[in-house]
Amino acid sequence: MSEAASARSRQGSLAAVPLGPLEPMLRAWLPKQRWFAGKGRAITRLRLVSAVELLPPGVTPGLLHLLVGVDAADGSADCYQLLLGVRPAPLPPALAPALIGHAEQGPYAGHAVYEGLGDPRLAALLLERLRTPGSHGPLRFDRDPAVLIPTESTPRPLSGEQTNSSLIYGDSYILKVFRRVGPGVNPDLELPRALASAGCARVPAPVAWYEAELPGSDSVTLGVLQPYLRGSDDGWQLALRRLGAGADFTAEAHALGRATAEVHSALAAALPTVALGPEQTARLAAGMTARLAATAREVPALRPYEAGLRGAFDALAASRGAGVPAQRIHGDLHLGQTLRTADGSWALIDFEGEPARPLADRRRPEPAVRDVAGMLRSFDYAARSHRPFAPAWADACRAAFCEGYARTTGRDPREDPVLLRAYETDKAVYEARYESRHRPDWMHVPMAAIRRLSERERPSHRAGHRTAPPPAPPTAPATGTTPQPHSKPPRRPLA
Predict the structure, then answer these.
(1) 242: part of which helix (H) or strand (E)?
(2) What was the pLDDT predicted at 81?
(3) Fewest beta carbons less than 10 Å away: which of 82, 97, 129, 280?
(4) Strands (E), 35-172
């Protein structure tokens, strides 16, 4: 019997695979994972949400798919997707780094439990399931029937992934496995499919995906398979190389602005749009103010600038903006979410949005200028990774990006300075929290923006304007050594 046939005939259930024997090892292992969002919060309980034995212990190796709820002492609760391999102990040397623990009792007694995505046999099984749509208990696998997915593709994990895990199959496809999941369609599946329907070539259409159907809940998106593009350049790394060579990047920034505008226009055509009235605009500003207050409590360096930063949000609330268009957007746009393809065109990737935000929030329409603000901050990040700091490079790129955007839409994002400043400020506050938690040596990057944006005088409406930003500290790392928040290695999806 094939591995897939065995999986189909021996599906697990919540009762068949209790979490109890696995709980101690998962409680110790989860907080060490890069994609675990609850760092610094004590785990009070693990809850089994779903379990399916795709390859049970009777088959070696076994593959156990879990959705595990994690409750924390601060009252937060998250759900994580785990794919666990099970083998008789000890593990082969190649899999030893993936070890989670050894089961001493229950159905896996005497077996080693490990991270299954690093096992080529188990990774190959996932691709086989995506090739052959069907259900395994609560899991449902689906695909685009018009696309031929090859049967023989050697899988390998993509190293350095930040908030999820990815597998590359040969040189053809990449599978993104979502780790922190929730009810509802993930934007990284929903938006690329909508863009493909609208004929937008800037973002690839998923060729296969899998979900979980849970009682009393919306479906949960678990993974998306996309084409893998060879020969593309990650936008962040490309910008750093140009900086290091002292080369201009404005042509690329202009083209990237046009690409972003094309994606926004296609999303607005494919999905519903709304107009924000005064009350919605005030709520938008209130949310930014609340995030600022929460971050200032956590990051003491922010407190001297809190009043000035709040002024950007107060100005937005006072603008009483009526009819501000809002639509589906990328939600976490920066240079690390872009690829320049071999033919010189730009593609946008990773439409999941900021993973720290609830899924419902990430699916809510917002002004497109939020994506613009994220990219403007990204140019600043790149410039401040360079020694010496290159403010003129950042200013030129910011201006070129906005001009490219306006070339497509007919409206320059800088023509709404209150909204743009509010979103840039909100992004800088987010960056300060991120760097404080993960890379304190890089706090100087968002703090430079914090100081600039907190100035009480109204900034120029032109994105290239700056008011004497402080120089980068002499201890700033060298060019090319540091990614920006949530940046990822090149995923190269696109046919």
Answers:
(1) helix 235-244
(2) 97
(3) 97
(4) 43-55, 62-72, 77-88, 99-102, 111-115, 134-136, 139-143, 155-157, 164-169
Q: Encode pLDDT of 353-394 as tens digits.
A: 987 788 889 999 999 999 999 999 999 999 998 889 999 999
Beta strands, E only, 108-192: 111-115, 134-136, 139-143, 155-157, 164-169, 173-178, 180-181
pLDDT computed for residue 485 by the predictor: 55
| Token pair recorded at residue 160 | 């350095």
Tokens 């944006």 — which residue? 453
CA angle (203 as vertex; 414, 218 as ends), nearest 5? 100
Name the token pair of 285. 């500003």
DSSP state, 305?
G
Give the C-alpha separation, 414 to 462, whole Å: 6
pTM, two decimals, is 0.85
Please report how many Cα atoms fall inside a 13 Å half-sphere around the Cα of residue 98, on the Cβ side: 22
Q: Given the DSSP bridges, would you call strands 139-143 and 208-212 parallel, antiparallel or unpaired?
A: antiparallel
Of 167, 156, 246, nearest to 208 by C-alpha is: 167
pLDDT digits (tens, 9 = 90+) for 126-147: 999 999 999 999 999 999 999 9
Determine the Cα–Cα distance for residues 491 and 341; give it in Å rounded to an integer.
Answer: 12
Share of the chain above pLDDT 90, in %: 70
